[in-house]
Amino acid sequence: MPRRGVVRAGISLPEDLMEAIDILAKRKGYKSRSQAIGEAIRVLTAEDQWESYEGEFYAVISFVYDHEVADTANRLIEAEHRHTGKIISTMHIHIDERNCLEISVVKGDRSTIEGVQRDIAAAKGVKILKVNTFKV
To answer: Which CATH architecture has domain 57-134?
Structure first.
């Protein structure tokens, strides 16, 4: 989203929330409290767009799986091939002797991204899966 300028706004927050924002801003290296609050608002609005918008998104689907579990690796490869043209990039990392981390970038509308997510999650050895979406 192109930056158009800055508008000054005042907000009232509970003291503990303001302290949490200050701690987060310092820990994450934000230059100001306003920058941290602005980033939080961007994340919230991106989630809202995902829930309500029907256009095109990019998604990063990250998942850890045990490649020793019943044909998991082959099922994941089949899922990726079913979504050729939708999965635009993949990175594979060997965590240890059994576990792999895979990161796939998907481009498409909400139903496309959810379809890829479902196919990956359906593979038996998938332990954890996270999806981050971006409306550009």
So the answer is: 2-Layer Sandwich (3.30)
Q: Residue 95 carries which side chain, given as an amino acid letter?
A: I
Sign of CA pseudo-dihedral 29, 30, 36, 40: negative
67 among the known binding-site residues? Answer: no
Q: Any known ligand binding at 83? A: no
Q: What's the Cα-to-Cα distance from 36 to each of 8, 26, 33, 114, 118, rounded to whole Å? A: 15, 9, 5, 30, 33
pLDDT tens digits in sequence order for the chain, 136 residues long:
566 788 888 888 889 989 998 998 999 898 888 888 888 888 787 777 767 777 899 999 999 999 999 899 999 999 999 999 999 999 999 999 999 999 999 999 989 999 999 999 999 999 999 999 888 7
To the question of whether residue 92 is assigned a binding role by annotation, the answer is yes
Look at strands 99-108 and 126-134 and give their pairing.
unpaired
The residue ranges of every structural domain in the chain are 15-52, 57-134
